[in-house]
Amino acid sequence: MKxxxxxxxxxxxxxxxxxxxxxxxxxxxxxxxxxxEKKKAKVMIPTPTLTEVLLRIPKTGPTYIERLKGFSCFQxxxxxxxxxxxxxxxxxxxxxxxxxxxxxxxxxxxxxxxIVAIAKAHGATEMYSDDKNVRDFAEECGIxxxxxxxxxxxxxxxxxxxxxxxxxPISGPTKVQGGSGGPVEDQSGTKEKA
Length: 194
Fold this sequence. Notes:
By secondary structure, the protein is an alpha/beta fold. It has helices spanning 7-14, 25-38, 47-56, 61-69, 81-93, 101-106, 111-121, 132-140; strands at residues 2-5, 42-46, 74-77, 126-128, 144-146, 183-185, 191-193. It has a 5-stranded parallel beta sheet. It has a two-stranded antiparallel sheet with strand order 6-7.
C-alpha cells in the first residue's frame, strides 16, 4: 500500500503543537503512522509538501528532515517528468467535465495539484490532507482521500481505577514464608515454625 501526506498531516507529525481542524489530531496522526508502519505501507512526502512545512519552521527544518529519515515508511518524492505528465493528462481529461479548455490552459499549477500528481505518479492509493481542495483533486485522480475527521483512534488500554476495586480481606490463616527458618506469624497472630 502507498499513501501520501500533504503539509497539514506532515506538520502535525513533526510538530505536535501544529494547528488542526479537530481536537487530538496529532494523536490521530501518530496512530495513523503506527498503523501504516504495521502494514509496511510506504508514505510519500511530495517535495512541495516538504517545502510548505520547511517554510513554516525554517530553524528546525534540518531536525525535522532527520526525524523523517527515522521512519522506515517515508519516501520523499519530487515533482518530476512523470508527475508533470500525470498532472497535464488529468487536467486535459477534465475538459468538458469539470473545466473548460480555457480554464485548463490558464490554470495555475499550484503546490496542491503537484502534491496530488506526485502521489498518483508514484502509485499512491490514499491521500491524507486536511485541505478540501487537495482531497477533491485526489479523488478526481482516483486516489482515496482522508482528512483529520476521517481518522479513528486506535483502541488504547484504559488505566484501571484501582481505588474502585473492591478489596476483600483474606480469610483464614495464611502461611508466610520466612527466610530465617525461625517462627513466623500468620494473620491470626499464631506463631508457626517455618
